Amino acid sequence: MKILVTSALILVGSCATLRHSEKIEKLKNSISYNNKSVVENYINTITPEELRAFVEEVSSEKYDGRMTGEEGHNKVCNYIKTYYDSLGIKPPTTHPDYFQKVPKSSLPDDVKDSQNVIAYIEGSVFPNEYIYITAHSDHEGIVEGEVYPGADDNGSGTAAVLEIAEAFKKAAEDGNGPKRSIVFLHVTGEEIGLYGSRYYTNNPVFPIEETVTTLNIDMIGRVDKKHKNNEDYIYVIGADRISSELHFVVQEANYNFVNLELDYEFNAKNDHNRYYYRSDHYNFATKGIPVVFFFNGEHEDYTKPTDTADKINYLLLTKRTKLIFATAWYLANSPERLKPEII
Ligand SMILES: [Zn+2]
Fold first, then answer.
1. In angstroms, what is the span from residue 154 Cα to ligand 1's centroid?
2. Does a structural domain hold residue 338?
3. Does residue 23 form part of some domain?
């Protein structure tokens, strides 16, 4: 009797498994770029030269290492805002100067008022559904008289967001603008404890329930030890935690446009580095929003004054930026909104 029951259970189990794999197959097949050449027109506006110019600007000494609340960081926020303004990418109507003030009272004791910078391109079909592309703009400042340039952390992510924004703007000008709204969010206070993104998600400018996804970029310009002989990679973290679909969208974007190795090592639930909890996407995830964290891993110059612009691999930064652009493109234009659902 016991044996019979057991085998019956096994039978039920295998049927369930089959149904699951069929569901996954169906989900994967539902994701495709039917307008690949249009995407290619704009993906090709993302260039190593422009990314280099942004990284060099953001990590330059004049910004004093971009410490939250200090003049150098305020200046770089002004640079970012002026850039959006010059491209005609608008601020939210509620924040006409592009700045969301993050007050002293929401920051650690010795930190002055700071700000998140927000710009967006309104969706042509679903303007009230929002795709976020985020990167922190702050860094470590000046430590013991030395400026910490933070070219990779997070000049690389900042540059990627600026370059992606320009590509979407060009598409919009040609009548190929995103169907959903895309928000370019440069958060403050990451290095001191994810303060800017926490403030934003508790005081969102656009409704949290209409936030489709957040693609967060924090360090994508360098190569870690593991990949010294295989540089074409990126760590993808968190994509499958809230939405199975999002995980496959990143894979489809990669397959169609860049062919990097997508390394999921740090996506393991028991990853002792706990990177999933350590950058700004996490504050969106706690609100139930599907997120992806794009990351190159740590390297010898991580959180050191030697994290300089000349050490960035700009061809690789370009490929990784293209991957994020293609992912955002799909999510902004897919017929149906991404489902926050695990299969
Ligand atoms: Zn960082």
1. 5
2. no
3. no
> Three-state SS for 66?
coil
pLDDT band at 17 (very low <50, low <70, confident <90, very high): low
Ligand 1 center to residue 24 CA distance, Å? 33
- The one-letter amino acid code at 158 reads T
Domain count, the chain: 1
Q: What is the DSSP string of 185-230?
A: EEES--TTTSHHHHHHHHS-SS-GGGEEEEEEE---S---GGGTT-
| C-alpha 73 – ligand 1 centre gap (Å) | 14
Report pLDDT digits (tens) over 122-159: 999 999 999 999 999 999 999 999 999 999 999 999 99
How far apart are the CA of 26 and the centre of ligand 1, in A?
A: 36
Domain range spanning residue 161?
Answer: 33-333
How far does residue 261's CA lie from ligand 1's centre (Å)?
A: 22
CATH for 91 = 3.40.630.10
307 in any annotated domain: yes
Q: pLDDT per residue over 181-227, tens digit each?
A: 999 999 999 999 999 999 999 999 999 999 999 999 999 999 999 99
Q: Which amino acid is at 30?
A: S
**Assigned domain for 319 exists:** yes
| Å from CA of 138 to ligand 1 middle | 8
